[in-house]
Amino acid sequence: MRIEQLNHTERYGYVYDAFGRRIEKHRLDRDGKPCNRTTFLWDRMQMIQESSADKRQSLYLYTDEGSYEPLARIDRTGNQEQQIYYFHTDLNGMPEELTDANGKILWECSFQLWGKRIHEIEHESVEQNLRYQGQYLDRETGLHYNTFRYYDPDIGRFTQPDPIGLLGGLNLYQYAPNGLTWIDPLGLMLLYRGMNLAEYDELMKTGKWTSPPSTLEGKWFAESYKDAVTWGEKMGHGGDFRVVQVSVPDNIADAAYKNPRLDGIGKARFIDNVVLNKAKIKPKWSKYIHQPKC
């Protein structure tokens, strides 16, 4: 990649592995040789470590297995003592502050809805490049690396179309319907379901999506967490329940039966149990909702 500014040109190179994960980025000197390398280590589709040219290594910890929401970062430079930093995120998991073990703010940033920086402050010499879940800021371009493509926060769109084509939806460059509550770490769709405790316990016990006799052999999923809570409150008849989040491949989400306003609440998609189980779709996280008794 070549970046041209007034009287100044810089070139950068990016290296990817066979799975499409970026494992290195570097600047090219005048002779075209790589310098200022930053390398990345992955655990499946999670970026868990980066190593920079100044011998700094950063190990990333996430809130849960399979999650892309950052929890902490452990830094070590050369033989120096390691430092532990903690992420403070907004509703959709985007970092807003980075603090040390004593709670001192080392980095903070405010963003517009689709991820454009409003004001960034580095109180210490600690650079923080994580953005929306699964995204890494390339400061040389201002774009966010998003595993299989790049995202431009200035326009709130990807710079390349969805790699699975029209199965990803009609808008091939869209990040997500709502940047406040939706995430798209791999270009997948997140759906939510409010379920009673018995259904949740059975799902956790067997790992299978099932339905009681004489009922639909499938599940309705809300397109927003808020609507899933509303359905849980309505269908639970006042009892406690859980809301689960699932990550659904775009082709399955697109093929699902869609209702623009199910039960007068909001957008929902119906997916057969056979499809859910064959795709091994499991909850990424769940939240217990307590219904106060009158």
UniProtKB/TrEMBL annotation:
Domain RHS protein conserved region: 84-120
Gene3D superfamilies documented for this protein: RHS repeat-associated core (2.180.10.10)
Taxonomic superkingdom: Bacteria
Signal peptide as annotated in the record: none
InterPro entries in the record: RHS, Rhs_assc_core, T6SS_VgrG/RHS, YD
UniProt-listed NCBIfam families: Rhs_assc_core (TIGR03696), YD_repeat_2x (TIGR01643)
Protein name according to UniProt: RHS repeat-associated core domain-containing protein
UniProt organism field: Snodgrassella alvi
